[in-house]
Amino acid sequence: MKPLAGTFLDGPFVGLGYRTPSQEGVTDDAGTFLYLPGETVTFSIGGLVIGSAAAATHLTLGSLHDGDPAGAPDVTRPDTVNRSRFVQSLGRQTDLRDGVLIDKHIREVVDAQAEGISFACDVESFAQADSVRAVFSETGLRFRGAAEARNHLRRALTGIKVLRDVRVPTRDGSYLLADVFRPIEAGNYPVLLRQSVYGRAFRVGSILSDEDLQASEEREAAWHEESRDGIFAYFRHSETAVSANSSTWVPRGYVVVRVDSRGVGRTPGTVDPFSVQESLDYYDAIEWAAQQPWSDGKVGLYGGSYNATIQWNVASLRPPSLKAIAPLASDSDAYRDLAYTGGLFLNDYRTWWFTEMVGGAKNPESDTVDFVGGLAGHPWDDDYYRGAGLQSADFSSIDIPVLTAVSQTAQIHGRAGFEAFAQLKSPDKQLLVWDAEYAHHMYLDSQSDIEAFFDRHLKGVEPDRAPSPVRMVMRTGDGGSEWRDAAEWPVPGTEYRKLFLDAGADGGVGGVTAEPSAHIAVAEYSADVRASEPDLPMAVFETAPFDTDVELAGHFRATVWVASTSSDADLYVSVRVMDGDREVPFGTHEPNPAAPLTWGCLKVSRRALDPELSTEVRPYHTHRREDAQPLSPGDVVKAEVELLPATGRIAAGRRLRIEISPADRKGATSAWARAYDESYHRDAVNRVFTGGPLASSLTLPVISRRAD
Predict the structure, then answer these.
(1) Given the DSSP bridges, would you call strands 322-328 and 402-407 parallel, antiparallel or unpaired?
(2) Domain spanning 495-703: CATH superfamily
(3) Looking at 493-622, which runs of residues are DSSP E strands?
(4) pLDDT in tens, 199-223
(5) What pTM was computed for the model?
(6) Where are the domains of the chain?
(7) Which of 328, 416, 339 is nearest to 375 (CA)?
């Protein structure tokens, strides 16, 4: 009978001795051993028996045992960890892409120490054994960490092979570095790629030392082997910074590629997020991936937050091999989304983001642009946000399939998906409307939608049922939600219901009515946050309790007639839902955001509207220097405030509370407040006018409970 050939999935292991009742030899250059059906095969290095297993076409070090049947491979079993760690450490490459070559010298060293090596002990005792330490001292090889060994074995058991620090050439003669996770079985597969400033270490960051490597491996092992409850929610479900998980996608027949942007990790160059250079590099990475031997030439992009935003920029360059993108919880307008929502600088968040998230992954030998300084130096919407510094999305240039999502009411990521869905030329586009905590939706609630999208556009697998163009989370309050489908966004049949503010007497809580009051009234509050610390001064208006359930989904708008004793004013408008004296929270997943039902903000001197881009449901402010409209103390002006699109079911008996305040402090959407310019807040008083010709109002998007 002709013998069968077997290999190790976590190898190849070349030069490994093997013996069966009928066969004996050393694994060849491909790591192949021979056997007959039904035989047991024993592997060794010199006089050290590595272990035995029922012979099969494919084995792993987890298949081996010391004599008794091992059962299903368990990567945490001590003898498996010790065996895997020992054999893997005989390889010279960190990623073991070419496996392990056991040459004459290694064999002689191991043979000399064989008597003192036993895999049947706890992991720490094995690592400290004199004979084990002697092997790696004499060979000069690195003894791998236990977590590193478990992770390599685990990937093999799920059919994943990793290639670390692969060079990706760029058009200017430089290069980027990437990790490639591909199926072990040779073939051509579609690619899911992401380029990022967040690094390639597990969770986030870069690997610049052996300590970094071991810490990353420990995080990876713990993510697979332990409870994830203690992991911050945004990283709980992702292997690395909200992008494609190799453990999910490679077994589905995809290659996952993670690329470091310039200046990140060990990649040379200057860190310059959202720049034209970054997009050109991304283009080059896409075309490089399409030409690799493991690729079928089709590339998709998948990621959230920053990893989503820069997809718009590279997609507008139309790389030929880019076939589909999934920018999930993204931004798109560099001025309005990334830096100056309502003309108010998101200074705290952007400083933290660039210092901690980007800075933590930076190549210590590289430079960075003055990212925050560049934003601060360009307080108006100008060419800096259209390529001179940062890029903004050009949706008109994108015609490939797109699956996008919004993170409604979050501090960022709350509007770009809606803008994209309205403007994209793509004949195949889908919109997911998520809650603020997008990571849970990205990896759990909408995983099947994302899989079906890429299977369709990268593999040609048509779903049993055509996907709905719009899927949205209808938030019902106190953590509740339902999924709803719609044919369009805004939802067909939406009624834009206008409610009018009515200032209360003597600075008390005002009312909200279906018709404007015939009489002008004024709600006055301090614009100086020192005036009522620790509370925030504000004008407050409340509806009567609703008679019936009301379902909202779409764009909100506040029209505020306002005056100030100063030269400018900041309007922060929050819409909250109250049940008695209790605010009803509308977050659906941890962490439950501080955001109200919806909110928006505007620096009043930036109130000039673009008549072509403004619509009935969404004011669009120009934010150009030449359109500035400073206040004259006492002048009453009309300010249209864009509130974030949102969903929410308001149960009968509950009421809406509208708050207009001068700062982003108590009740803000997150811990990062927007800039507060004391020069026009100190000792200032703001006034909101209601009724008559100064009828301030709130516009609600009301939909049918049975909308398609």
Answers:
(1) parallel
(2) Galactose-binding domain-like (2.60.120.260)
(3) 495-502, 510-513, 521-526, 539-542, 550-564, 570-579, 582-583, 598-603
(4) 999 999 999 999 999 999 999 999 9
(5) 0.95
(6) 4-144, 158-467, 495-703
(7) 339
